[in-house]
Specification:
9 strands; disordered C terminus
Length: 346
């Protein structure tokens, strides 16, 4: 299965493990709750554990294993088991969750597992706004409760907030950032720009769609003003000698401005940088993806991750990604990387 290109593909630095793409919340900007995974063949616990162990000869110690979804805590026993295994093998572990299932008992289990970083999603300090966007009347209460339970354990676990810039919460974001800056329980806040809701039919003009166009900020200059306010919070913290808790770079915020001004214009000067990030994702059925919008390059139930990574399919996918000019959420949000100003276009 190996190809002759195995000397030129860099080893990955991060792996995203998706135990599920399902969720119990009914978020307005994410329709993953519509996923039906009942008939999807998934790796067994032993297959997941075997995959994690196989990373030892493939990824460097300290590499980041990110557990995301959907809602990973729909499978609490498997999740805690895999985080514990990663910790034993020397990997850094991160968890992205709504916080809805983090009660006192689960908080203890996550801390004891050796989890290094947890990102809890909070769209607004105003419970009406957050609950409306989450589609659950008690979601605001549950995420704040999760912060309390996790912080009371006085562990090294980093607690962060993830949020999304969109029209319904636009006027709440500066207040949210200031709250994180002043709350000693929280280490970071990370902002994402709203994109077309997940698990919906691709539409280049989704911002005008009757079903979810309401998420797109209508006043572009107001969005710019808010983003400038977030940049100021970063700079104010640095000037004051405090920790800069806003985890976005200024260059990413500037990219957000360009994106909100013209969402149809490709935001990168050169090409998608997903492969440059040297990361891959394992889907709930075990598929290994360099890009979730393209075909998998293999499956952990059928081949070793090393053979998959250096396969002909992986090489073909990298070429395909390199020519992609879609403003997907990866290059704008989670996998954003600052472009080299000296790089020449091809």
């Amino acid at each position: 299965m190996q190809s002759s290109i195995n000397q030129v593909i860099a080893r990955p630095k991060a792996c995203v493990v998706l135990l599920t793409l399902g969720c119990v919340l009914r978020c307005k900007m994410c329709h993953l709750w519509k996923n039906d995974e009942r008939n999807i063949p998934k790796p067994s616990t032993e297959e997941w554990r075997g995959f994690i162990k196989s990373l030892g000869n493939f990824m460097d110690p300290g590499s980041n294993i990110i557990f995301g979804g959907g809602e990973p805590l729909l499978y609490p026993d498997l999740l805690v088991d895999l985080i514990s295994l990663c910790h034993q093998l020397g990997y850094r572990t991160s968890l992205a969750t709504s916080g809805y299932f983090v009660d006192e008992k689960m908080a203890g289990r996550l801390v004891r597992s050796g989890l290094d970083y947890i990102a809890l999603t909070l769209y607004s300090l105003r419970k009406e706004t957050h609950n409306y966007l989450r589609g659950m009347p008690d979601s605001h209460e549950m995420v704040l409760q999760a912060i309390n339970y996790l912080s009371e354990l006085k562990s090294p676990l980093e607690i962060a907030i993830d949020t999304v810039i969109m029209d319904p919460n636009l006027y709440d974001l500066i207040e949210l950032a200031q709250w994180v800056r002043n709350d000693k329980r929280l280490q970071l806040i990370f902002f994402q720009a709203v994109v077309q809701p997940f698990h919906t039919k691709p539409d280049a003009l989704w911002q005008n769609d009757d079903d979810y166009g309401f998420l797109w900020p209508k006043d572009t200059e107001e969005v710019v003003r808010v983003i400038d306010g977030l940049i100021k919070i970063k700079s104010d913290a640095i000037v004051a000698g405090q920790r800069d808790k806003v985890n976005n770079t200024v260059s990413q915020f500037q990219l957000f401005k360009s994106y909100f001004r013209n969402p149809q214009e490709f935001v990168k000067r050169f090409s998608c940088n997903v492969t440059q990030g040297q990361a891959f994702t394992v889907s709930p059925e075990g598929g290994v993806n360099l890009c979730p919008y393209m075909n998998a390059i293999g499956n952990i139930r059928e081949s070793s991750i090393k053979d998959i990574w250096y396969s002909k399919q992986a090489a073909e996918r990298q070429v395909e990604i390199g020519s992609c000019a879609k403003n997907c959420h990866h290059i704008i949000n989670c996998w954003y990387e600052e472009e080299d100003k000296d790089k020449k276009g091809t």
